[in-house]
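Purpose: get a first structural picture of the assembly so the mutagenesis plan has something to point at.
Setup: two entries, given in the order below. No constraints added.
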Amino acid sequence: MTRSAFGKGLVHGIPIGLGYLSVSFGFGILAVKAGLSVLEASLVSLTNLTSAGQAAGVDVIAAGGSLLEMALVQFTINIRYALMALSLSQKLDSSFTFPHRLLAAYGITDEIFGVCASQEEPLRPSYMYGIISISTAGWVTGTFLGAAAGELLPPAVSSALGIVLYGMFLAIIVPPARRERSVLIVVAVAALLSIGCRYLLPWLSGGFAVILCAVAASVLGALLFPREEDAA
Amino acid sequence: MSIAVYIAVMAGVTYLIRMIPFAFFRKKITSTFLRSFLYYIPYAVLAAMTIPAIFYSTGNYITAIAGTVMALVLAYFNLPLIVVALAASATAFITGLFL
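Result (structure tokens, whole complex):
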């Protein structure tokens, strides 16, 4: 019974794992360019399991930023997981005891949240472990290969792969921006502020610039376009 | 500073953000402002991270712009994340062959 829930999770996780495999390849390349070793890059992926936060974290490391900056950057970029975790916490099966919650919380990503949230029945720990294990395997393997093979690949290929992660970010942003004018405006404001920071305030570190731009744009969005009960 | 310390801070903060609400909270957030802010923040973060950084991501503005345009078009038509990501990269690569 438990095994079948795990197996179901594995199957549901296959597309996520495959997607992660190729996207994290790009992260591995970025991480090595930023000065991390292959092992360090893989360790970041294993312990964080998140794309945007890791990319920003590697920027902070490369720039020699402070630990406070690192913590604030991670907090700002990953705070969305708190909302997802909150949402999932309300549809857990009674077998989801406290230790299981401590363990499964590790694997709450945008994609895993999406699949779990769309399940009809209450979530069982083994189901989540199934999705999380195959996704993590893809994420870490891809990072390792990208970090290790980044040097073996022809420069034309490895530089072209530098855009993979950003391409995925655009794929996350564009559809909701197309659907909702409020998201479009928030995204446009954040992008304009980010351009402003880069060229007008070049002394501002990348991590803090992202925090400032994102918080300013989101506060503006929350004030101008408050959302009703559907936000999750 | 040791890279291991950075990694520990990254991992610790990221885990706590996921774990605290998942393990302890049962109530819903009711503040409309906070809910709205939390809804917008991931998109705003990704936008600020992507622009203008994407234009520097391939080491050549022309290939980067070609990849960006391809990503925007495919994302507009709701293609899966992985398709958009790889097509952006393939476009940058192919454009590079003609430079």
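Residues 2-164 of chain A form one domain.
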